[in-house]
Structure formats: C-alpha cells, structure tokens
Write a structure and sequence with these properties.
The complex is a heterodimer of chains A (100) and B (480).
Chain A lengths: L1 E2 L8 E3 L23 E6 L5 H14 L3 E6 L9 H10 L2 E5 L3
Parallel strand pairs in A: 3-4, 3-5
Chain B lengths: L8 E6 L4 H15 L4 E5 L12 E3 L4 H5 L4 E2 L1 E6 L1 E7 L1 E2 H8 L11 E2 L2 E2 L8 H9 L7 E3 L6 H7 L13 H8 L9 E5 L4 E4 H11 L6 H11 L6 H6 L5 E7 L2 H4 L14 H16 L22 E3 L10 H4 L8 E7 L2 E5 L6 H12 L11 E7 L1 H10 L3 H11 L1 E3 L22 E3 L7 E5 L7 E9 L8 E4 L3
Parallel strand pairs in B: 1-2, 2-3, 13-14, 17-20
Antiparallel strand pairs in B: 1-5, 4-9, 5-6, 7-8, 11-12, 13-15, 15-22, 16-21, 17-21, 18-19
Helix pairs in contact in B: 4-6, 6-7, 7-8, 7-11, 8-11, 13-15
Classes of the chains: A alpha/beta (100), B alpha+beta (480).
Amino acid sequence: MTSASTSVSPRIVLDPTDETAVVARESAARPESLTGLTVGLLDISKPRGDVFLNRVEEHLVELGAAVKRFTKPTFAKPAPVDLRQEIATSCDAVIEALAD
Amino acid sequence: MERPTLPKGLVAFVKRDCPTCELVAPVLEQLAASGASLTVFTQDDPSFPSDADWVVDDTSLSMSWHHDIETVPTLLRVGDGESDRTVGWSAEHWRALSGDASIGEGLPESRPGCGSLSVDPNLVDELTVRFGGSDLHSRRVEVATLEDDHEAMFDRGWTDGLPVVPPTEARVIAMLAGTTREPSDIVAVIPPNLAEASVEKVAINAVMAGCKPEYLPVVLAAVEAVCTDRFNMHGVLATTMGVGPIFVVNGPIRHRIGMNSGINALGHGNRANATIGRAVQLVIRNLGGGRPGEIDRAAQGNPGKLGFCFAEDEEGSPWNSLAEHLGFDSGTDTVTAFCGEGPRIVVDQMSRTPESLTKLLAQAMLSTVSPRMVMGMDAMLVLSPEHMARYRDAGWDRQRFHEEINAHLTFKSDAIIRGVDGIDEGLPAGFEGIDVTKFPLDDGLLVTHAGGPAGLFSSIIGGWVRGDKGSLPVTKEITP
C-alpha cells in the first residue's frame, strides 16, 4: 500500500464584516475664541430643542459669534446631505442639540 | 491545487463499503497477478482490496475528486491521459477495457456501483474548498490552534450574544447554493455604515445565524426590504424605542422551506422562523455596524431584536393574504418587513360574534405604545385561527373588519388631553373636542393570521413612527 498526497485544511472562517478596520478619527482643531466666527445650531426637530438652542444662541452672541440656525426635517433620520454640506460650508463650528 | 496525474495503465477507484467493489476485488487481484499495469485507488480502507503496492491510499479523496469519480468501482484506461472509463461492474465492459477476456468468470454479468465518497453530500463542499479553491472574496480569518471556534466568534464581536455557526468556506459555499445570484452581486447598502453587502457577505451571516441554504433567498429579500429609505433601518436602529424589524413571509416558499405559521408561530422551535430574522440582524450588526450601545440606542430593546420572523397561515384564513392585501399576486413569494416591538397577547374567550371580538381587540389596541398616543404610530395584529373563525363564520372580509375596527379606534380627544386624569402625557391643550384615530388610516393597522388551532388569543405588535418621518412597511418579492 502506498500513500497519495494529503492536505489538512486549516481552521479558516470568512470575515462577516465590511472589512473596514476602525479608523480613529481626529477631532477638528478647536477655535481659541468664538469672536467673529459663525456657529451653526442644528435643531434635530425633537420637542423643545428650540428652547435649548435659543438659550445657547444668546450665550454665543454675547461671546461675539454669529449664529446660523438649521433644522433637520426629522430626528428619526440622518440629516440630508445638502443640509450637512450647507452647514459645513457656511459655519466655522456647529452645535447639534438633542432635547425632549 | 494542481490536478494530480493518473498513472498509466489500468486505474480503478474502489471503497470497501461497497458490495460491488467487494465483488470485483478478486478481478482486481487477477488483473494484478496477470502482470497488467494496474493501480487501485481506495477511498476508505487503505488495505482494501489488498496490502499490495498497487493499492494506493486515496482517503484524502484527492485523486477521486480531481478525476471526477462519481461511482465506485470505476475502471479507467490511461495512456497519455484517460482514454476509456467504465462505472460499476460490467463483465463485458471490464473485459473490453482491460483487454483480458478471462476476468470475472463466475460473476454476474453486471452490478451497479455505489456512490464515490468524493461526491458524498456531506464531504463535497469541504473537498471543493480543499482541492478546487473558491472565488469567494471575503477576508480569511484563521482561528488559532488553541482558540475555541465559538469563543473566537464572540471575541471578534461577530455575534448577537448567542453562539453562531462558524462561517467556514465550505459552509458558505453550501449556503450560496441556495441562490442563483452571483456571490459578488450587491444586495443592498447596509446602514448605519453604508457598507455594500454582497450576496457572499449575506451568505456568511446566514451561515452564522444557522440558516439552511434554502432560506437564503428569503434572507436576501429581507435585507433588501429593510435597507430602503422607506423602511429606514438607520432610524430604526438609532431610536431609543426598543423596536426592530419583524418579517412576515407569504407564498409557497413557506412550505418549501418548512416555516411555521401554526402552533407557536411567533415563538421558538422552528429553524427557518428562528434564523431568517436573526440573519438579517447579523447583517445589520456585522456589515452595517449597527451594534447595541453604538448606533443602536434602544433604551430597553425587546427580545424580538434577536430575530423575529414568521409565516402567515394563508390556507387557514378566509381573507386574502397580507401580501395580496399589499398588492402582490397570490402564489408570489414575499417577505414583508414591519418595524415593531414584541408581541403582546390579547385574550378574548367569551366573544361569539365578530362585533364583540372587534370591540375587545380595539380596546386592547388603544393602549399600544401609550394610551395617550394617537395617529402617529402603527401596529400589526396577528389574528389566531380561533379568533379568525368569528369573522369567517359571520362572513366578514378584511375590508369589513378594517371598517368596523377603525370605528372603535376612533374617539373624542378629550380623554387624552395633557393633564386629564392627572396624567401629564397626551395631546396638547387646544386639541379638545376632535375625533382622533388610534392608527393612521392609510393601512396603519396591518392584519395577518397565524397560530395553532386552539386558543382564543391573538397578538398585537405595536409599531413605531409611521410615515416619512419614521418607517413604513416594505414588501419584497423573494426570487431564487
């Protein structure tokens, strides 16, 4: 009796994920002062979010910042791409508010 | 792996566990003794049919697999390649092929052979991977020698908290046989990470969930259904409400894959019901990155988020099926995704008329989500066969049922204004004196039929924000 070649299969499984390693993102540099900067305030459309943002706006104006207000159509969905781009291009900083 | 070449001369493939191979063993001995150039590859017992050096161990099945042996015994003549082949035992063919007219005296004229181990259904997928390679593209992850397979799946964050079936290449190849779609086809873009899900990736997660290959078309359609703007899987994940996707399957496929629409249909114990919804959730988790505590922000969740899928009992219902109600032809295989919580039981053991039962069901439904919330959230009602019998006996169809129950689900708003009865939740002041309806009238109450033959219990599944600002049910046709 002679032997043909044999091979042992290693214990391999297939990756069930999207195979994107988690990339650590660096936060954008924080401004030293808000004076003269434009700050976006994004209301996600939860009840009373406007109450909170109105108060935030008062503080920001006192600090010398210009304020632009934005509203998401619904809190239940991500912000539309157009809105995100508008905020990104017209503001130096953004505050997103969640309130109930 | 390179295809191993056959030795020249006569070549036979046999296994001991085959009566026809046992029958021809003396013939092989006779051929070897006659000085013929003979090589016998043996698949199970290396000492069968003898310990002689013309018997070659093929327990790895490499030779058998590479040379497409489907039956044992198979006898080949090999020169500059294979020139002739006969399967099973035929005295006439063996004599002609070997050129030895004296073999096989005293044996019957012919006997059919047995299945080659290289095509054994339990082995063929593993052999295909081992010898044929595969064109699957997913990253290979090697499980370390000392690692436990199941612990390795947990450690990598690939499970929903229960063990998963390790997705070996052989299992994934077997799973992919459940669909005619190419492994590289993109099924959907999976939120929240917007990862493209190929058929192959869905198949991997279906293996992990415990699906059989024949369930894969349902899983693929279900993944397509939830990854639509209409269903809004991103929002369903991100909401702090503990809702998740619920799947109702319609059409003949329910029977083909053995789904349960009867006793305990909403519960455990049926493999298809239990694993299809789970596979979708694993796709959301592993491909989309929708993990609890991350984008999945549910404050409490519900056990149905492990996977919630059942079949409608169409045959036992006097009404058109849920899929027909939603615009599909009867006989079409579909899966409907609905965003909801866990089922709650409604008991009515006394109603003998549809009028009485309908009122009771409406009273129970007024409390879904919150007795003070109206018009914004939807629901699904799963009528049991004994409750459905009330409507069958009285001749009510689906439309009549909806008309009647909507009347009982409409009431004056005064009882649910904020502050009434000392409860702060409710409609704001100023909304007094108007008629409100519990569910949106554009199909905000989906009704389906499932359950065992005995038991005067139906189930209500409270929904989530209905419409463009939340989720709407999505039905997809299931294709092979």
